[in-house]
Amino acid sequence: MSRAVLALGANLGDREATLRAALRGLGDRLVAVSGGYQTPPWGDPDQPPYLNAVAVVADDAVDADGWLALAHELEAAGGRVRDPARRYGPRTLDVDVIAVWRDGPGGPEPVRQDDPVLTLPHPRAHLRAFVLVPWAEIEPTAELPGHGPITALLRTEPVAADVPGVTRIGPL
Ligand SMILES: Nc1ncnc2c1ncn2[C@@H]1O[C@H](COP(=O)(O)OP(=O)(O)OP(=O)(O)O)[C@@H](O)[C@H]1O
Ligand SMILES: Nc1nc2c(c(=O)[nH]1)N=C(CO)CN2
Questions:
Q1: By the number of CB atoms within 10 A of the CB, which of 29, 63, 73, 133 ranks highest?
Q2: How far is the CA of 9 from the centre of ligand 2 (A)?
């Protein structure tokens, strides 16, 4: 079993249509999806608000690299418009691999790696209310590997201050 948590975000173009198309692209690998959340831009304030969502996906045939490849395919299909000069700048679609679990002898175990091509868990997920709030909607008891329960992260700074700005706008 390989299971992953993916974070989707868009703040250019028809954000809702882009996220819906990406979710369709996950096909029967999609296990659960949060609602769509309007979120203030994180890391680079001078840009439009984002529409964010989190998806839980599973597929025995897909490993960690496979989830990243799928994320990149979905981004390409979403137009992949972005300004290369702005690290956290606006974009038509961003799909991040937040964490991956694979079957171990004692049950599912998190994949931990520092490779810059694919760092797991995602190195900034624990700082991002726009990831943790939608994830908590669909998996309230989840743990972010290395950082503990996501509900505890949501109560702790710097994330706690950002939580009130993350607004569920409805199902996708
Ligand atoms: N967990 C991960 N999920 C997605 N991309 C990752 C991950 N770890 C490393 N990367 C690498 O990061 C590179 C840049 O990704 P991307 O353009 O999505 O970053 P970003 O969205 O600007 O910033 P951030 O990763 O902080 O959201 C990708 O080409 C990918 O190889
Ligand atoms: N609210 C929000 N802010 C962001 C997002 C995102 O998806 N949502 N993605 C970014 C890309 O790294 C930078 N900032």
A1: 133
A2: 6
